[in-house]
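Continuing the batch. This is chain 6 of the set; chains 1 through 5 are on the previous pages. Same settings as before, nothing changed between runs. Recording input and output for traceability.
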Amino acid sequence: MWVLHQPIIISLKARPNRKPFAYPLSKKEAFSFGFQSRPKTLNVSAAKKQLEESQTQKPESEKLSLEDNGSEVVDLGWLPAFPHVLIASMSNFLFGYHIGVMNGPIVSIARELGFEGNSILEGLVVSIFIVGAFIGSISSGLVVDKLGCRRTFQIDTIPLILGAILCAQAQSLDDVLWGRFLVGLGIGVNTVLVPIYISEVSPTKYRGSLGTLCQIGTCLGIITSLFLGIPSESDPHWWRTVLYIASIPGFIVAFGMQFAVDSPRWLCKVGRTEDAKTVISNLWGASEVDKAIEEFQSVITEDGTDSNSRWLDLLEEPHSKAAFIGGTLFVLQQFAGINGILYFSSLTFKEVGITSGSLASLFVGVTNFTGAICALYLMDKQGRQKLLIASYLGMALSMFVIVYAIISPGDEQLSHDLSIIGTIMYGYIFTFAIGAGPVTGIIIPELSSSRTRSKIMGFSLAVHWVCNFLVGLFFLELVDKFGVAPVYASFGGVSFLAAIFAYYFIVETKGRSLEEIEMSLNPNFSDRGK
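Output for chain 6:
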């Protein structure tokens, strides 16, 4: 079960700037994954596409497809960017792994290191992770602006690897606390870095779907840690093995990023225009190079670069609105109860007579993963706003179903079934996973300007970690004082408010480049165009 104070945030991105550690990328070196955006067959009938309806060519990333007798079968425009996104998403796998890794072994750790039965110290082992994550999130913008995403990914693996090994070799409580703090520091940077990187290297048409890999990585990490933690129930020393394993994804990310690309937007801002053109040509298609570079330079000329941005810029328009939306989305996400449900899902089942915490955790994890797969398909088809609204409405309905199941004096079997359906199978977790989870991480960098993207993400994620900590700190106390039903009813109410907020404040970004979005939201561009 998801117990104690830890986050399950889904998403997350980071933004580059200046040039330390940067070196020119040769075409071979920059794209060692070997995928390039070249169309295999290009047969578009005049009946389907007329010149009068489109003054610009489709991006080559959208043309890459396999065709059978002239009929499009498989769209492969996402493939050139996929290896780079996959390596970045491995950071979210590590995030998910650390969310679940302490659930089972914490008892063995406490027993071996001498603080068994001390709930405050056991909680501290888990919550120190959030302290590190807050610091990592709020400080990540500066590092990303200076070094770029690729180098920041590699540097960030240092605290992740060292923290995992320090925990695995711990001989005292202090060792575990320092290890968990270092891991949290690295995770805090990653939650900002991953969404930004994916949004900036992905072709416009596939940005939402590829961004959903953040959540899929997190879900797989959680499920993996739960399965690997099972032997800890019988082997009191197994926790060391599980924590040693936690260092492996860090090595994979550090090695894989050596072959990944830097964001073409960052390359352009630090003056490496030719490298940016190479990245765009290989990932998005040669036909996109001139248009993309022109948009990049237009935004840089109008709004400046990351190196000129300050935290005080978040108080000015148009940056203040994006920061407000980002922070509010995470406040609503957390107080809609997702981490309360995930950490303490066993309470719901116990209230209706289900005592198997392991089975509950398994259902929650699988349902979360299933929802993330659905989001992968729907994100660029239905759009961000529709998914977000539908997701929060589904979460609200599910919470109210759970409340009814708990307070209903009727048939116990009915209560049992409604709780499972409302919480897992068709309700809260699934609807969260198709919208509120992935969309929150995807939409914030899309609505942020190039100049302040990393700082807005850092601020938004810092708000997330604070809210996450508060939910973990007070959830059980509120349940003890008021009961499960009133607390879950409040979660349903917040979910409904979140749907209203999404309706009035979220702008649809599907199918639009980051520069198009920025120019449409920035009054400076609008005024100049009049």
